[in-house]
Amino acid sequence: MTTTAEHIKCLIIGSGPAGYTAAIYAARANMQPVMYQGLQPGGQLTITNDVENFPGYPDGVMGPSMMEDLKKQAERFGTDIRYGLATAVDFSSHPHKITIDENKELTADAVIIATGASAKWLGLESEARLNGSGVSACAVCDGFFYRNMDVAIVGAGDTAAEEATYLANLASKVYMIVRKSEMRASKIMQQRVLDNPKIEVLFDTVTDEVLGEHAVEGVRVKNVLSHECRDITVQGFFVAIGHEPNSKIFQPYLHHDEQGYLKTIPGTSKTNVDGVFACGDVQDFTYRQAVTAAGTGCMAALDAERYLAALGLH
């Protein structure tokens, strides 16, 4: 017995600032958008504490609260927001074919990809084994559990510096493990770290192993210049070394760079496949900010509207 795939005029894959903004614009344009939120409804901002640099919030806003506001706004205009993960696509013909949760078949005239990016890990066996038992990629989510304890964080960029500073408000001591002789973070974030008496930066240092059987008890670090190892006693181990775009299922059809970020035609959200648009962090390796993600979400909806209108489908 065969079942007819559900047909959608405008499908949005993924949520977050890009997806929700695309949904707001698409719904207001009467494109009847359907959104599948993915594994992390609301995207990375749901694991962010204070958002102070998004326009319109003079006193700042909590990330999860901001995402709930965007979701409600998208729903207000008629977006059909659903739980589910896109697990396969076929962009070789039109309408485009999408599989949700490995069993639900969809077709769509226009597809907006807003799947964002996910945290990278070091790849250590001990890191994976103790993930959730003292190992975390989200200081804001889990920092509370390490109040008045010693913790370590790996990374050298703005995110690592921000999370180290956040952890210092809770923990007794924060060791920041930096592979090179300097941080990549912006000057103001570096200064905040270096001026914080609770943070000790270990330059030219890598993580050799996370210590502990059933929970994190410490971390073995190695100096890359002297090759000397030493053990540091910590109860929490945080990883902040960047993100990987969630683009794997699209890569057979869409142009992408060596890291997997989807390529769009400059000045647009258009991919190399007609009717497929990309927005947010899945295509932005440069800025990766909530406000730029929202901007590209707007672009994607407008590009999709014009595409459908040109085909006489809107």
UniProtKB/TrEMBL annotation:
Enzyme Commission number(s) of this protein: 1.8.1.9
First and last residue of the signal peptide: none
Entry keyword set: FAD, Flavoprotein, Oxidoreductase, Redox-active center
Reaction(s) catalysed by this chain's protein: [thioredoxin]-dithiol + NADP(+) = [thioredoxin]-disulfide + NADPH + H(+)
SUPFAM superfamilies the record matches: FAD/NAD(P)-binding domain (SSF51905)
Uppermost EC category: oxidoreductase
Keyword Nucleotide-binding among record annotations: no
Positions of the FAD/NAD(P)-binding domain: 9-297
Keyword check for Protein transport: no
GO molecular function per UniProt: thioredoxin-disulfide reductase (NADPH) activity
Cofactor names: FAD
SUBUNIT field: Homodimer.
Family of this protein: Belongs to the class-II pyridine nucleotide-disulfide oxidoreductase family.
Protein name per its UniProtKB record: Thioredoxin reductase
Organism from which the protein derives: Hymenobacter citatus
Gene responsible for this protein: trxB
